[in-house]
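FORM 7B - TANDEM STRUCTURE REPORT

SECTION 1: FIRST PROTEIN
SEQUENCE AND TOKENS:
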Amino acid sequence: MTVARRRPITHGRVLAIALPILLSNATVPILGVVDTGVVGQLGDPVPIGAVGIGAIILTAIYWIFGFIRMGTTGMTSQALGADDQGEADALLSRALILGLGAGVALIVLQYPLFAAAFRVSPASEAVEESARLYMAIRVWSAPAAIALFGITGWLIAAERTRAVLVIQLWMNGLNIVLDLIFVLGLHWGVGGVAAATFLAEWTGLATGLWFCRDAFGRGFWNDWARVLDRARLVTMAAVNRDIFLRSLFLESIFVSFLFFGARFGDIPLAANQILLQFLHVTAYALDGFAFAAETLVGSAMGARDRARLRRGALLTSLWGVGLVCFFSAGVWLFGPAVIDLMTTSEEVRAATKTLLPWMVAAPVLGIASWMLDGIFIGATRTADMRNMAVVSALIYFAAVWALSGFGNDGLWMALLISLVVRGLTLGLRYPALERSADPLPASVPNTSG
């Protein structure tokens, strides 16, 4: 599993990294549809609501640990770029220890965490009871689900995204089959959906470990003096802390966006929710090229090669720009028809179509922020990411206040302003990122990764 850092950075190499991620992400919403569909066959709205709210709560909790995936990709790609296979393998061990430990902590703390979650998003007694059953089963696979973040990040850094695709296909495929068996065949109801996911996540971890078997055969992964080296652990903690805080500020924008939209009434709220799905699809699609940027920029940073870093950033961004232009054109041409499919309410349809131009503009205005995220993760310039997320969030909230007289249109303007601000501020920091890839003086050791 060696990344050839001197291999030319070509369009083909970018696509080889990005396309499996695009396909992998495309399978995610399918599983949600099947989970909802099988419990929908029970003829009772309670299981549908229980699976929905239970999945949302657990996904939100697991999302907190998404920094493991991003931090692992950036640091591992740099280690591989520096030809330090030992450090790359040690990073896999650190990510697995962190992920498994976080999952065990969630199991231990499940009762207060779930109680707090239901206080924030209360449901009917029947739905809450079924949702608690769902979550009580699924939480036992938390160590597997969170440890997989680390494995995924490590494989992406090694440009082995086809393995990531296979893991995702295996997990989602098995989950769907077990859904059908447990719910429709054995009539286990909500517990059957949870059991299917539990088994899929643990077997997904086993599959991921199998794809990492070459690392376990080299002997670096259990070099505990290296794995638990204090200086490297402090570096990893700082990177993960910054990514976590960055994500927290960005999440505050999107969560508050829905809350602010609710002030305008049920119809604008529904319209915003529909349009956000377009934005999520765009972000999922761009993940492929953002991940490619993480890998190629990280490898160049580890090799201290500014020219390769710039080429990796440019090629991945060119593909990203092409993709968002395609998406924007698609939203403009087919958006009204998709909206009609997503809701039967004529009022919601009309309100959503009125706002559609904002969604046409969003991918084009947001491309810089999304691609620069990948570039900065690869370079592990996470303090810059954290700081610019803070600036973006502050300007967003200020814009919401300043544009409040424009109603829902003002809210969308504020959201797009935050995307532009994040792209501009990260862009201003990009020259410093490039300079940091210059070769170190001979007297200074390379401690990248």
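SECTION 2: SECOND PROTEIN
SEQUENCE AND TOKENS:
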Amino acid sequence: MTGIWVCAIEFQKVSVIGLSNAHCHAPPPLGILHAMSQDTLDLDQRARNLLRTLISQYIRDGRPVGSRTLARMHGVNLSPATIRNVMADLESEGLVAAPHTSAGRVPTPRGYRLFVDSMLHMPPLAEDQLGRIQAELSTHDSGDGLIESASNLLSGITHFVGLVTVPKRDQLALRHIDFVSLESNKVLVILVLSDNEVQNRVIQPSRPYSRRELEKTANYINQHYSGQTLHQIVRDLVRQLRSVQDSMDAIMQTAADMAERTLQEPDPANFVVAGQTNLMSCVDLANLDRLRELFEAFSRKQEIISLLEGCIHADGVRLFIGDESGSEVLGECSVVTAPYSVDGQVLGVLGVVGPTRMKYDHVIQVVETTGKLLGQAMRQLS
């Protein structure tokens, strides 16, 4: 996906992020698809107005837009013949296409990209939808419940597919830890994490430990490291172990060993998905083979996970239109994502998958708002 431009949007502030780590500093403030020619960027105002009007109309009703339809629309004030000439220019630039001979035009992914990057207005999210998100995310006392609710909200409000990645437990703060001795020199690790979830892991320590040693070690970690993530705990203990190994207290050595082995088998990446069946009602995705491929991708998860995890360090919303995602199965879809975080630490990514014909201003605001409020709700659990 190197070289693809994506936009990062933070409510009223808009910036550009490139997957190739390049940046565009010239106006307009939103990014332009990397492959666009300079001629496309120099479209005159008449062509830009027609393209914006065509895309807005197509998003509303899903039917190809003809020159006569455009001529009747408010604010165009151009003859059908002039409109046809401009439309031919837009088609030669790859911004619109005619699905059938003598039919009107529809926007291409390239046209959508220009529309989103330089023509899109971002009204605030409707108060009722904002209130719905706040209300539903405030009713859960566990991280798993919040994630499922966020996924359902994204799907329910946009009528597309809602996705939320599950935080890896190693990214969550530790509340309490216990060790229970098992047979064959194994130890059960019981973790109570900041999202109120309990996780059990079975590890194989470097040597047998007595019940008393395990109890002292758990007390030591709970006393000194509660509130830190497992990554932070291991990093600190291992650093101390390597720097002062000869003089380190036996309990600290045991704690370093146990913590490091607890982290050796990280949680597999996962996400919660809601609303796959919404895609069946999208006329743009009515091809049964395409729908089957999409459902299989959601079931396999790895392809979707790779895309979402690639957005985990984004500073705001990322938008992939069609082939920009780098995924063939998502080639007729748009994906809008945003990270969610607690106290500056990113826990995961959420997003919406739908057809390229979507109300981008609305979906972007829903994803952005849900990401921020999910992070706030997760913080309340800690």
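SECTION 3: OBSERVATIONS ON SECOND PROTEIN
The domain at 31-118 is CATH 1.10.10.10 (Arc Repressor Mutant, subunit A).
The chain has three domains: 31-118, 127-167+268-381, 170-262.

SECTION 4: SIGNATURE
Preparer initials: ____
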